[in-house]
Every structure is written in structure tokens, then in C-alpha cells.
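Progress note, project year one: complex with glutathione.
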Amino acid sequence: MADYVLYGTEVSYFSGKARAYLRWRGVDFEERLTTRDVYRDVILPTVGWPVIPVLALPDGTLVQDTTDIIETVEARIPDGPRVMPDEPVQRVVTRLLDLFADEWLVIPAMHYRWNYNEDWIYSEFGRTSAPDAPPAEQYAIGRKNGERFRGAVPMLGVTEETIPGVESAYETFLRNFSAHLEHSPYVLGGRPSLGDFSLIGPLYAHLYRDPESGRLMERVAPKVADYVRRVVAGDKGTGSLLEDDVIPQTLEPILSVQMTEQMPVLVETTNLFGAWASDVGKGADVPRGFGMVDFETGSHTGECAARSFPLWRLQAVTDEIDAMDIAAKARLGDLLERIGGVPLMDLRLPARLERRDYRLKLA
Ligand SMILES: N[C@@H](CCC(=O)N[C@@H](CS)C(=O)NCC(=O)O)C(=O)O
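Model obtained:
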């Protein structure tokens, strides 16, 4: 029996991130499908709510949240490549990509899945949940399970008005990332770091594996499709990141979009979180969202939910900034200047967040 068990599915965004990381790290793990029995018998009794992926450690402890999974494995298995760069600006950039891939590229990922692959994904959900049921029953089960995810699409800001912007922003991302991959096999050089695994979240299950989305990726950005295959396979690369804390210039267009599109939503969410936090005590469960805010993508505007979880990823970015020395801060300042991200240097959550009992809480 393997040391670790990953509970997840091929159709799941965050299972793809965890799986690719575990393969790259050479972890002895087996993956178990999250059928309805696994949710009932394994996940719900401990985690308390239906969410994947979940990693079972050799002693049976369950870990949820991909970044917690990754950090737990890094701490338990000291030998092998480290997912976090040693250099400070690279650490910030890889965390920024974690924030962008987990919490912004979810917009095109969900749009293409639900607006171009709906019937297919219902069948896939059904196959996962009830592998032994006949196809028609699987489809019905998939439809029922899928409603929760389909219902999240408008909350992400995907509407008739914004869809042209969502699609144009995604195609811009594909072109920018292809241009980057012309020069560098991974985001920060010769081998993967956290940001690469994070990108596999949106880029594998939804945008590569869902049939219509996969065709789009192969047509517009075959290099990105090739990258997805490499990272998913656990490819080790050359073993080295760029030296001297260099950030490839070809990443700057992607980071610029993050600053112009995602950052304003994070700032608004931070403000709403601050108003909420001023009224509650330490240890309070943080709600999943704080209402709706304006957003813009691909030059189209709309409203999206001010979700709380991205603030947890944002706090990880700003913690890296707070850990920097003056020289590194100056180098980061130059990068932020070029990508339109100067406000990030001083943006801090008005109250700290922590994760306990598989939930986000006020620290
Ligand atoms: N931040 C979490 C996100 C996990 C997540 O959203 N998982 C999806 C499937 S890919 C899910 O189970 N969502 C259920 C829900 O959010 O209610 C992580 O990184 O693990």
C-alpha cells in the first residue's frame, strides 16, 4: 500500500494541482476516486464539508487545501526538490501565480466547462460519483451533483455581457504564456515551482481535458498544451530555477493582467472583509463571500462575488513581501512598477486570516 492517499478526481481543478505536485516530488501515493461513498465515509466525517482534493498522510491525518497539502509534504519529506524558490522576488512571483491560477483563471475554466462542455461534464461527474451505475443514471447523478458548480458560474462574473471579455482575456493569457514558454520551460526557469502546479489547476481538468476547451488550447496555444502534459506527468526539468532571483520578462504581461484585473477585486474584497472583521471576534468562521463587486476582464465589465478565499492566498503573497530585506524589496518594487502593481507593496489585510479545522477563520 502507498504511504499517502490522494482523494480526488480527473475532472477536478484542484486535484490536478495536487496530483502534479505529488508526482513531481516523487511521493509514494495512490489516488482514490471520490465516489459518493468516499464523501460520506471519509471526507464529510472529518473535513465537515464536501470538498476535494484531500490528502491522507501515512498516520491517517487528512489535509485539505492544495497549498496546505503541498506545504505539509514539503515539511514531511525533506529530501528532493523544493516547491518554493529560495530567492525572495521569485517567492513572491510564484505565490502571485498561485493566487492568479487558483482564484482568477477559475473564471475562464468554469466558463468554458459550463458553456461549451455541459453535457459531457454531467456524464463525467456521474461516472466519478457512481462508477458502477449505467450511463443514463450516471448522467442524472452528474446533473444533480453538477448543479452546485454550474450555479457558481454567474457568481464568478460570467454572464452574457462579460463572456466576450472572459474569452478574450483567456486567449490573451494563452498567447502570453505561449510566448513565455518559447524561452523557458517553466514559469521560473528550468524546473517547476509552486506557480507551475497552481497553473495546472485551471489548465488541466477544465481547459485541457474538457473536449471543447482542449481543442481551443491545442489550436491557439499548442505550447501550453505541451506544458500541461509535461507538468501533469511530473516532469522534473533540469533541476534549476533562474539564478540571481531573475523574473523572466515574458512573465510580465501575465502579471500585468493580474494587477489590472484581479487586484482591484482583491482590494474591494479586502475592504469588505475589513468591515466584516471589525464586528466579529477572533476565531470567527469567515463567510465564503461578502456580496458582489464590480470587475473587468478583457475590457468588459460586470459584477462578481467578493470571495473570501482569495484573501488567504493574498495573505501568503504579502507575508513573503514582509519577509524580504530592503534590497529584495527594491527589486520587487521595480517589477511592480513595470507591471502596474505598486499598490501591492502596501496592501495588507486589515485582520489576519488562519485556516483551522479545514475552514478559514479570523486569526
Ligand atoms: N482552496 C481549495 C479549493 C478546493 C476546491 O474548490 N475544490 C473543488 C473541486 S476542484 C470543490 O470540491 N469545491 C466544493 C466547494 O467549493 O464547495 C484547494 O486549494 O484545495
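The beta strands are 4-8, 29-33, 54-56, 62-64, 289-297, 300-307, 353-356, 359-362.
The first helix runs from residue 13 to 24.
No further modelling is planned for this target in the current period.
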